[in-house]
Every structure is written in C-alpha cells, then in structure tokens.
Amino acid sequence: MRSWKKWCAPQRSGLPVTNKAALIQKIIASLDAELALMAQSARAAHEEATHEQSRAENKYDTRGLEASYLARGQSRQAAETLQARAEFEALAPRAFGPDDGIDLCAVVELAGPGGNALYFIGPRAGGTEIAHQSKSLLVMTPQSPLGSALLGHKKGDRLRIEIGGTLNEYRIANVF
User: Fold this and answer.
1) Whose C-alpha in 2, 7, 82, 114 is 20 to 30 A from the C-alpha of 123?
2) pLDDT tens digits, residue range 14-61?
3) Domain boundary among 90, 115, 134
4) Is the pTM of this model over 0.90?
C-alpha cells in the first residue's frame, strides 16, 4: 500500500487545517456508511445464492449463479472501500499557501461553466460528496481527468480540459 502521509504532512499554520481534519473524518464516516450498506447487501445476496429456492431447476436456471456473482462483486467493492478508508485514515491535513501547487489534501474551489464548485483532492473514493461547513464538497482523485489536470497548478491558474468530449474552461479560484 502506498503511504499518502508524506504528501499530506502539515506545512503551514493559519489555514483551515483543523477543518480539513473534520472533513477527512466526514469522508471516513461516509465510507463507513457505504460499508454498512454493502455488508447488508452482501448478506442478502449470499442468502439468495445459498437459499434452497435458488437451486437450479434445470440447466437454464441461473438464479443461484447470478446471485453468487452479485455477492462476489459486492465483496470486491467492499474491499476497495475498506482500502479507501485506510488511505483516508492515514492522511494528515495539510495547508496550502498561494505558492503551493495542488496536490493530495488540497481543497480546491473551481470556477467553471456551471459556477463555482469545491473539491477535496483525495487518494481514493472519487465522487463521494460531503456536506462540510454548510458547503458541498466532492472528493476528486488524481486519477480522474480533472484531478490529474489540476495537480501542480496554483490559485488563479486557468485550465482548458476536455471531459467527455466537451472542452471546458476552469479557473482555480482558491486552494486551501
């Protein structure tokens, strides 16, 4: 497992580092809630796969097989979520100054075609949406098209990024 701690070590005081610690905890809580739902779904899928009514009645009856595939997929998804949780637990909040390039642990405010949006650059769990300090933040990973384009850029930079066949222009309004 790659350690993200070295990338997210505290650097400066005076910026909302304590808020980032709370934000990371909210992301972990969201992942915990996902895991609880996955466990419940996996139990139901396992019961379906092993229930006597799921036994094949003929060679074309695949209910039990389909339920076992579903249970296996849910198990893999739960393992990925557990890995994401572990990586977020290893993060230490980092403050970003005006001369720091965007990296893991940055909260980025982007001004784009649909208005301003807040993103938290995290190691995994891209697409997780968190309400924090009466604002909505979306977790973005460096592996995503927008996330990889943001890395290294600073407040005030403008980016033109093609996402889904559409060219979008963004301005980095703020980096915390």
Assistant:
1) 114
2) 334 348 899 999 999 999 999 999 888 777 776 766 666 656 666 666
3) 90
4) no
